[in-house]
Amino acid sequence: MTAPRGWVRRPWRLAAEATALLVAAVVAFPLYWMLLGAVKPAGEIESTEPRPWTSSPSLDSFRRVFEQQAFGRYFVNSLVVALSVVAASALIAFLAATAVTRFRFRFRTTVLIMFLVAQMVPVEALTIPMFFLMRDFGLLNTLGSLILPHIAFSLPFAIWMLRGFVKAVPESLEEAAYLDGASRARFLWQILLPLVLPGLVATSVFSFISAWNDFLFAKSFIISDTSQSTLPMALLVFYKPDEPDWGGVMAASTVMTVPVLLFFVLVQRRLVSGLGGAVKD
Amino acid sequence: MTRKVPRQAAPAPPRPRLGPHARAGWTPWLYLAPALVVLGGLLVYPVYQLGLISFLEYTQAQVSGGEPTSFRGLANYTELFADDQFWQVLLATVGFAAACVVCTLAVGCALAVLLTRVRAVPRFALMLAALGAWATPAVTGSTVWLFLFDPDFGPVDRLLGLGDFSWTYGRYSAFFLVLLEVVWCSFPFVMVTVYAGIRAVPGEVLEAAALDGASQWRIWRSVLTPMLRPILVIVTVQSVIWDFKVFTQIYVMTGGGGIAGQNLVLNVYAYQKAFASSQYSLGSAIGVVTLLILLAVTLGYLRLLRRQGEEL
């Protein structure tokens, strides 16, 4: 930002860089400890002198996780829920964001404020009525009872965030498209959609995470059919407050965290610019 | 929407049928329809139901159909407000959320500033670590932090020489542990957003300020802070909302609300009332209280937006 004024500023920058690296190490440490705990042999985990390394890594904990529990199945369940939510909410949010940014119509501002208010609704408070709603639909104990609420809950934020991206596409482009004889549908799907794709990616991160991480609904709606469980509930099987199987918990946590980490790293550039776009607007 | 044009009126000037400024007609509503249907059915209707249940007598007997539901008026609320535990939980929720928001914002903003002061490698390292913390699911974050602070096998007690001190036993140490985890996984959002905001400030503005002889501190106070205000408002409001409704971390880390419910917050309290003791109407009443508090925050946010003259 400002040009360093000679070498007097150098020590300050070095101190800042050392601090940044130190903070990075502290922030990353829990994740390192999780991975380490997952590969430590049982004897080393249950040791009162924990060491920050291991001399004999083993995959025992992972084996236990996948054999004792149908962890593969829970993984697929979680993936189905998260991807369905991402696809449905991205599509619906794209249409809605287009409506509120590229058209002028009565109640437009009202609709926008409604989305903003909807975004603030604490979904956790809706668990009780949602439980009865899902029961009436006959969806309890099915993945549908996790997918439907999460589509609804990720929509307002997705619309709010996509708004900036749709707005950023110049109107002249739209005029040119129509002058060239494109229909509204063609403009929407073949011109606008590819242009706001980065925004859709940034938005999907949030929908994916909220669906993938969901614990409350999984706990409340998947009550008896464990074949429909998702990862958070399966993970807690290994965590018994009195004698937790830490190796199992850490291995299960690793299995649950790594996909999200990969997803995040893949889209991080778009995420940062996406947030910038959303907040600048 | 109304397209009533008097028959005798002079023909309107020719205008393209399509285009950004074309008469919208029903098209925007068509585009909005899926969103409105989903939100109406799965958000508005449940909110209405929540309010309704909070006025009814609704326990296991009514759920299974053994007894008819009966209207209780405000009886659930009077019962709730007469309960000392409710006020204690409310106070704990507000205090805990406030502490989380302050710590998250302080850490997030400080690190965002730090990011602008360092070269690419440390910046990348910090960014990557923060993204990792951000991406970690709440459940796994909670179990990992529990493991770190485990009295028998965790490294933290060893490192601090605390013997086998149990962090989850005492009320405040348990809240503190949860706070650490919450700050760990929510500061990255603040950091990344504020950093993006600082980077979006045009360099000329800062140069001009520096040329006019403004000190670094002065630039921060009089140039950057006002320009970042909208972003700071957004991250503050988001943090308030997220931290006020923390559920997973409290539930997992304190085993459903701590010893004798000492670590309950409103959401966990409502869950326990409804699903552990089948008092659905009391749980709903707690939900309504949470909803109203956050609605007040939202309305305050909207007023702020309007005062800033932002166009929606």
Automatic annotation (TrEMBL), chain A:
Matching entries from InterPro entries are given as: BP-dep_ABC_trans_perm (IPR050901), MetI-like (IPR000515), MetI-like_sf (IPR035906)
Q: Which GO terms describe its cellular component?
A: plasma membrane
Q: Where are the transmembrane segments?
A: 12-33, 74-100, 112-134, 146-166, 187-212, 246-267
- Membrane topology of the entry: Multi-pass membrane protein
Q: Which residues form the ABC transmembrane type-1 domain?
A: 75-267
Q: Where in the cell is it found?
A: Cell membrane
The family classification in the record reads: Belongs to the binding-protein-dependent transport system permease family.
In Swiss-Prot or TrEMBL terms, this protein is called: N,N'-diacetylchitobiose transport system permease protein
Species source reads Streptomyces echinatus
Taxonomic classification: Bacteria, Bacillati, Actinomycetota, Actinomycetes, Kitasatosporales
UniProtKB/TrEMBL annotation, chain B:
- The residue ranges crossing the membrane are 29-48, 86-114, 126-149, 169-198, 219-242, 248-270, 282-302
One GO biological process this protein is involved in is: transmembrane transport
The record's InterPro entries line, in alphabetical order, gives: MetI-like, MetI-like_sf, UgpAE/MalFG_permease
Q: What is the membrane topology noted in the UniProt record heading this document? A: Multi-pass membrane protein
Q: Which domain of life is it from?
A: Bacteria
Tell me where in this chain the ABC transmembrane type-1 domain is found.
90-301
Q: Name one GO cellular component term.
A: plasma membrane
Q: Which family does it belong to?
A: Belongs to the binding-protein-dependent transport system permease family.
Which PANTHER family does the annotation name? BLL4140 PROTEIN, DIACETYLCHITOBIOSE UPTAKE SYSTEM PERMEASE PROTEIN DASB
Q: What's the protein here called?
A: N,N'-diacetylchitobiose transport system permease protein
